[in-house]
Amino acid sequence: MTLMHPKLLLHHTPLLFLLLLLNLSLPLAHHLPSNSKPGCQTKCANLIVPYPFGIGINSGCSISPLFDINCDNSSIPPKPFITTTNYEIVHISDNQVRVKNLAAARCYTESGIVTRQNIINMSLASTPYSFSTSNKVTVVGCDDISVFGSDIGKNFTSGCFSVCAKKSDITDRSCTGIGCCQVAIPKGLKNFVAVLISTFNHTWVHSFNPCGYVFVGDEERFQFRIWDLDDESFQNRTTQDVPVVLDWAIGNGTCDRAKKSADFACRGNSSCVDSDTGLGGYRCNCLEGYEGNPYVSPGCTDIDECENNPCDKHATCTNTPGSYSCSCSNGYSGDGRKDGLRCTAVKSQFPAIKFSIGLSVGLLSLFIGVTWLYFGIKKRKLARMREKFFQQNGGLLLKQHMSSNNGGLESTKIFSADELEKATNNYAEDRILGRGGYGMVYQGILPDRRVVAIKKSMIMDQSQIEQFINEVIILTQVNHRNVVKLLGCCLESEVPMLVYEFISNGTLYHHIHNYGEISWFAWKDRLRVAAEAAGALAYLHSAASMPIIHRDVKSSNILLDDSYTAKISDFGASRLVPLDQTQVTTLVQGTLGYLDPEYFQTSQLTEKSDVYSFGVVLAELMTGKTPLSLTKSEEERNLATYFIISIKENRFFQILEPRILREGTLEQLQAIGELANRCLNLKGEERPTMKEVAMELESLRRYTKHPWIQQENTEENEALLGEQSGLSSDLYAINVRPESSIRTYPALDSLDGNVIYPR
Ligand SMILES: *[C@@H]1O[C@H](CO)[C@@H](O)[C@H](O)[C@H]1NC(C)=O
Ligand SMILES: *[C@@H]1O[C@H](CO)[C@@H](O)[C@H](O)[C@H]1NC(C)=O
Ligand SMILES: *[C@@H]1O[C@H](CO)[C@@H](O)[C@H](O)[C@H]1NC(C)=O
Ligand SMILES: *[C@@H]1O[C@H](CO)[C@@H](O)[C@H](O)[C@H]1NC(C)=O
Ligand SMILES: *[C@@H]1O[C@H](CO)[C@@H](O)[C@H](O)[C@H]1NC(C)=O
Ligand SMILES: *[C@@H]1O[C@H](CO)[C@@H](O)[C@H](O)[C@H]1NC(C)=O
Ligand SMILES: *[C@@H]1O[C@H](CO)[C@@H](O)[C@H](O)[C@H]1NC(C)=O
């Protein structure tokens, strides 16, 4: 998902040509000239340290102590480190610093016992550095999931999974989920923790892949090779070969603000550039035609271009500040430049100039014409392809459906692109409701004042269009009060857009995990929402004309309306399953933490995968814990596993949210815990059907509390807790939620958590 599609690259080729032809140079990475402050050490071993960096802690050689470089000469050769950290610098450029990697590994025995493991925990807090987006989180392994997250500034968890059943499935140099997976990191990241977890502890793949690896590093410096999977030195090799790229900037303000301050760092003949990390700060660049270190007084110096004579042999070169000029000698005319019109003898002046101007104009128009034609043809081809694709995906069928007024589709409207543009105030930032792997969701207000949610695909890419059309087809077949209603769509714009009823109260995820800001979501409401969601899924699995598997059941896909009624959303990944088939083979798709391990391993999709994911939602509702949590101990990291183990070891009541213990009855909680446990069974066959789950939840919901029952149960609860865990009833009053220290950032979660890979 992070790789540029080769087609896209191809698409840009003519543009690149144009740029080259017009002699516009593309920005290249520059080395800072090696000026250090006078009297300061300029090199630490082989690393040249230019100002504003300086060698020695508090030596005064750098612009501020934050830019000090600790040259540790206790080793031979000495090693340069970023001040106060143990990150070893390998290169410094005018906008980035590269440091040695800290790859992590997790190794197993044949029977799945962990023999060695480490995690990566890097922090650049209170340094002028942040992790560059040139880095990717990369996992190498055949049964490995990375969980990657941060809690300074950006609170989020993401990750990717890498699997393979046999060596022959793996493609060399391809990091797309088979043996290797990669995810992007957000801009301006200051710290992260990356850990590895495994579904089957490598027991299926141990013969060719005994360890899983994770690292964060320069994407361009790593290429996945099959032999990496059983290379014992992989971790050491990566540490050496794949640096971590850091962006750096001075201060935390903008250029405009810095220019007014006394310690503005950009010297003469340089310009100030704002950092693009979102953290503030700036850097300096020499003006065009100047060179040198822009941070060192008096600043950049003029380049003497005449040194490598850029003029025609009949011209003389004169250097000017920031530029140069060529003047043709007597009897010649022209601009005198080697890369321009050169000098031509006066006699032939007119025809020659005419000819050359005519030729250039002619060539240019030809070129523009060809480019235009190229893009025109490409566009038409694309339009044709889209149409064909649209037909393939039932788009025409859809249109027919919509134009004929039958089958509950009367309300589905086709909107024009203008209407939606107006409704969203031209897709204004403040109208964004959410982002995900599919694109963006905006809030829109229709002319009749109706508030709607508009889903717009971010990049126009065929797989995304397919997901959109898929969602329309599925939703037009569904009419259920607990499924979000599709009001219409817009097919005439570049990217198709879907218009839904607006669901005002956010996602179930927010209500479970964000309290403190939102009021406590009571147990009886949780139970009702669970029963409603289960009912809707059961309906999708059985009652609809063709069974529908949702494939991405999670608490952030369960929306709540003003009366807190559940509405299932996001059918982009869903599949219609023909009645005569009980399972289909697909690309594995879903979200980390909710994904059915059986589906994950076999890529055989059945309704039971939704049952598993729903089991995770039930566990979430009861424990108030997120499905994946970095801050937790290994045992607690994956909620599904932790939940099953806790039940097995009779510690079930200890992992429940304390307030839920108070609000629910013991029998009810136990029964629902059991139900969730059955949903989370590793074998799909042994899980209940969604219909059974829905019926059971409905009947348990009816099992309402009476005052005397509550009292009896509270005593019973206490007795039980006392006996099993020695916890006192104080527990009931505690509202502390330790996991609130890492909050999942839903945008990133759904963006990077949805990893698709082909089988
Ligand atoms: C190591 O560095 C310290 C302080 O920077 C200096 O005093 C010492 O002479 C250095 N030692 C060597 C062997 O260069
Ligand atoms: C990462 O390191 C920081 C500081 O060194 C520490 O506070 C934090 O607990 C560590 N996180 C993990 C998950 O080990
Ligand atoms: C994997 O290993 C961990 C740690 O050794 C262990 O707790 C867990 O039960 C193992 N899981 C499987 C499926 O073997
Ligand atoms: C990796 O490096 C460590 C420390 O430098 C060393 O102890 C270990 O033997 C190396 N492992 C391999 C497989 O080379
Ligand atoms: C920015 O830097 C200044 C000076 O270093 C400091 O006083 C200020 O608190 C910083 N502001 C922020 C928002 O970090
Ligand atoms: C910029 O460079 C020119 C020529 O090299 C020099 O005369 C001028 O003083 C410089 N400007 C500043 C602000 O240093
Ligand atoms: C991230 O979590 C930490 C600890 O709970 C909190 O202090 C910080 O404000 C959070 N940051 C954001 C952007 O929510």
Automatic annotation (TrEMBL):
Domain of life of the native organism: Eukaryota
SMART domains to which the protein is assigned, alphabetical: EGF, EGF_CA, S_TKc
GO molecular function, one term: calcium ion binding
Reactions this protein catalyses: L-threonyl-[protein] + ATP = O-phospho-L-threonyl-[protein] + ADP + H(+); L-seryl-[protein] + ATP = O-phospho-L-seryl-[protein] + ADP + H(+)
CDD domains, alphabetized: EGF_CA, STKc_IRAK
Listed GO biological process terms: cell surface receptor signaling pathway
PROSITE patterns, per database record: ASX_HYDROXYL, EGF_3, EGF_CA, PROTEIN_KINASE_ATP, PROTEIN_KINASE_DOM, PROTEIN_KINASE_ST
EGF-like domain span: 302-344
UniProt binding sites for ATP: 456
Domain Protein kinase: 427-709
Signal peptide: 1-29
Keywords recorded for this protein, A-Z: ATP-binding, Disulfide bond, EGF-like domain, Glycoprotein, Kinase, Membrane, Nucleotide-binding, Phosphoprotein, Repeat, Serine/threonine-protein kinase, Signal, Transferase, Transmembrane, Transmembrane helix
Membrane topology (UniProt): Single-pass type I membrane protein
Chief location of this protein within or outside the cell: membrane
PANTHER family: OS02G0633066 PROTEIN, WALL-ASSOCIATED RECEPTOR KINASE-LIKE 21
Described function: Serine/threonine-protein kinase that may function as a signaling receptor of extracellular matrix component. Binding to pectin may have significance in the control of cell expansion, morphogenesis and development.
Protein name: Wall-associated receptor kinase 2-like
Organism of provenance: Sesamum indicum (Oriental sesame)
Name of the encoding gene: LOC105161525
